[in-house]
């Protein structure tokens, strides 16, 4: 089994949090953002030997998505599968799932939801930019995303609030998608094209927030 088993029993330390702790979230996400920015800066400053560069943008995208999937999604699938096979949770219908297993399942589900956004952003970077720029950008994005998934996973076992720092990977995916959409739009339709996707996205966000506020 993967060494993640060292977290066994950590669920007992969890504290119930019904609402987002805003002040804590701002501080933690701010720190996580600074770390992410440092990773991106290093990715564009450290020299890269030409023989190690992929030969096409497609190779950059495929290798980045495969690496991210292997080091996050695959490990999470294995964690759930191992506990199913080696514990009283073998029968999912028996309702004997441990707290740890439930958390691992939630993390797995969240990662399944986030992976397509990450992959789309990597694909856009690899398509829009020259090879070396695409390689450096994809390397930075992949590193941040993998680390953020691990932090989200481990932190969740210590309490819901401790997964917040891991949300920086989700924020990165959103920023990359919107930024690359602006670049693509600019190339295709100038200012009007550049503002199209962000405008539609912003309208959607506003409608979502209004809908939530009306229910409260």
Describe the structure.
With 216 residues, the protein is mainly alpha-helical. Helices cover 73% and strands 0% of the residues. The protein has five helices and no strands. The protein has helices at 22-45, 57-86, 99-128, 131-156, 168-215. Helix 1 (22-45) packs antiparallel against helix 4 (131-156) and helix 4 (131-156) packs across helix 5. The termini are far apart. Residues 1-16 have low confidence and may be disordered.
Helix and strand arrangement:
Layout: H1 22-45, H2 57-86, H3 99-128, H4 131-156, H5 168-215
Mean pLDDT: 88
Low-confidence stretches: 1-16
Which sequence of SSEs, written as H and E, runs from N to C? HHHHH
Rg, Å, rounded? 20 Å
Short description:
73% of the residues lie in helices and 0% in strands. It starts with 21 loop residues before the first helix and ends with a helix. It contains 5 helices and no strands.
List keywords for this structure.
single chain, mainly alpha, 5 helices, 216 residues, disordered N terminus, 73% helix, globular
């Amino acid at each position: 089994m993967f060494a993640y088993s060292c977290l066994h029993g950590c669920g007992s330390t969890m504290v119930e949090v019904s609402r987002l702790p805003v002040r804590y979230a701002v501080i933690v996400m701010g720190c996580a953002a600074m770390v992410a920015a440092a990773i991106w800066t290093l990715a564009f400053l450290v020299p890269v030997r030409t023989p190690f560069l992929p030969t096409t943008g497609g190779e950059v995208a495929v290798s980045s998505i495969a690496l991210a999937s292997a080091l996050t999604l695959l490990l999470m699938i294995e964690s759930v599968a191992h506990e199913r096979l080696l514990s009283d949770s073998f029968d999912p219908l028996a309702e004997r799932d441990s707290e740890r297993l439930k958390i691992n399942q939630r993390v797995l589900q969240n990662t399944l939801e986030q992976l397509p956004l990450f992959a789309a952003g990597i694909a856009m970077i690899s398509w829009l930019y020259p090879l070396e720029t695409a390689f450096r950008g994809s390397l930075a994005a992949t590193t941040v995303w993998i680390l953020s998934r691990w932090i989200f996973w481990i932190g969740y076992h210590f309490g819901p609030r401790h997964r917040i720092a891991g949300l920086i990977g989700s924020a990165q995916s959103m920023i990359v998608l919107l930024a690359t959409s602006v670049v693509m739009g600019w190339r295709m339709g100038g200012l009007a094209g550049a503002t199209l996707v962000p405008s539609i996205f912003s309208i959607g966000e506003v409608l979502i927030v209004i809908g939530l506020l009306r229910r409260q």
